[in-house]
Amino acid sequence: MLGLVISLLFSAAFGYVAAQLMKLSGPWYVYVLLGIAGGIVGDLVFGLIGFTSNSILSQAIVSVIGACIVVFLYRKLK
Fold this sequence. Notes:
With 78 residues, the protein is mostly helical. The chain has 3 helices and no strands. It has helices at 2-21, 28-48, 56-77.
């Protein structure tokens, strides 16, 4: 249970960083969802090119880039 809470906090932080980079505003739960989706998308994209994230720093970078991709796609579809 504690691991889930920590994971959601990290996801929110990564989502917040991506939202600031992409000039997106919204409530806190948007950042959490953005961070979770960014982690999934980032893992998929970087997995396709053969990059695996083994440390917290590399996972943070992958999640933020993935979240930026999600924001970009959201803006294009909107």
